[in-house]
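Customer escalation, tier 2.

The customer says the design service returned an amino acid string that "doesn't look like it belongs to this structure." They asked us to rerun it and document both sides in this ticket. The original structure tokens are below, unchanged.
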């Protein structure tokens, strides 16, 4: 069996592998992995190495613990990179510098990032269910847009996404949309509940012809 890029279903003790594909997906998983492994390790990646003020000859036990954490953070990140990606960041002095270089390489500078956000926001605002598309297919496209935005630091409230999906449905769904709006507080309605309700209605529509 061919190995998958990110080791789906891997051990919780192994960081997800990044081979240059789907950076946003890997970055989110890596953040969760590091935070769950040791939040101080994640802080080192995000904020920089723990500072050691003493010379090596005068290291205290606390200094040695800080150095160990700094090294561990770099080791974990390196273990999560393919040879190509490791070579890209191997000259970096700190784990934060390595993390930032990967981010700029795959997300671009802040200006590029803002442009990508603008493109996805337009896709979100213009989102409509397509002809012949199922609720599952429609929601998959919608999730791809919102996940992309979330990975770039732009997110929408649950209520906004619920209303967006309802507005994206064709006119044949108007009675169902009205029923959902009357029966629920859209600001508090979970997205999963909405999709479940729409899928059930879709099945009934197919059954009734």
């Amino acid at each position: 069996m061919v190995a998958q890029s990110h080791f789906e279903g891997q051990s919780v003790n192994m960081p997800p592998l990044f081979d240059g594909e789907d950076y946003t997906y890997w970055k989110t998983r890596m953040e969760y992995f590091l935070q769950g492994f040791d939040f101080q390790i994640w802080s080192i990646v995000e904020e920089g190495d723990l500072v050691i003020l003493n010379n090596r000859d005068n290291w205290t036990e606390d200094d040695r613990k800080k150095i160990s954490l700094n090294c561990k953070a770099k080791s974990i990140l390196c273990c999560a990179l393919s040879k190509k990606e490791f070579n890209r960041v191997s000259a970096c002095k700190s784990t934060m510098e390595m993390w930032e270089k990967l981010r700029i390489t795959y997300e671009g500078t802040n200006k590029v990032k803002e442009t990508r956000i603008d493109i996805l926001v337009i896709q979100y605002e213009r989102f409509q269910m397509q002809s012949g598309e199922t609720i599952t297919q429609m929601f998959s496209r919608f999730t791809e847009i919102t996940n992309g935005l979330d990975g770039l630091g732009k997110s929408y409230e649950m209520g906004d996404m619920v209303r967006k999906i309802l507005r994206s449905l064709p006119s044949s769904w108007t009675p169902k949309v009205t029923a959902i709006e009357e029966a629920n507080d859209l600001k508090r309605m979970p997205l999963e509940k909405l999709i479940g309700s729409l899928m059930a209605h879709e099945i009934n529509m197919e059954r009734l012809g």
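Tier 2 assessment: The sequence is consistent with the input. The CA atoms of residues 58 and 64 lie 10 Å apart. The chain has two domains: 23-107, 110-208. Sent an explanation to the customer and offered a walkthrough call.
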